[in-house]
Amino acid sequence: EDQVTQSPEALRLQEGESSSLNCSYTVSGLRGLFWYRQDPGKGPEFLFTLYSAGEEKEKERLKATLTKKESFLHITAPKPEDSATYLCAVENSGYALNFGKGTSLLVTP
Amino acid sequence: DAMVIQNPRYQVTQFGKPVTLSCSQTLNHNVMYWYQQKSSQAPKLLFHYYDKDFNNEADTPDNFQSRRPNTSFCFLDIRSPGLGDAAMYLCATSTGTRLDTQYFGPGTRLTVL
Fold this sequence. Notes:
- The complex is a heterodimer.
- Chain A is mostly beta strands.
- Chain A is 0% helix and 57% strand.
- Helix content of chain B is 0%, strand content 51%.
- The interface between A and B is medium-sized, with 22 and 29 residues.
């Protein structure tokens, strides 16, 4: 059975303190790995798609990387507005996204 | 801006009273999805439509039904809501091409009294 595990469940950072979120997955025939940001009471907002091991994508203070077993979301010099839950999801076959439970990030001033 | 719209944003219903949630899109995407997300949990796919073709997930309860009258609209019907159905319901769309991205609406928060 496909599994997506995110760690840590919660992370508290000081503004400017860089860190990484982890998404490990076991899936047969990975088609894509997706990162979303979700603010409280809102729908997930698309951030990145990674398709193959070694791929990297960046957006402002965020950088996503992919290996054959896991993905990392690196946050460089975070700001309080980066506080949110970050969701990882994999697509194997068909159209379903299999989500992890997310990492709840709090960045304090 | 092209977008996914969900109405209402908040819905309160009584135990056993049918409720319908609405999703519309201006993206002209072929695929529309319904996810259920309970507090502090991952979104869970209930079903999706590829055009008019309905695809139900194996573990989606019969209490949940869906309709897609046209490309732009999709509805989620909960025939007899139970307390365990209280959740955020998320609608998403995608083009349906290989390796495409799902775009989510803001969600409807359902409360069952």
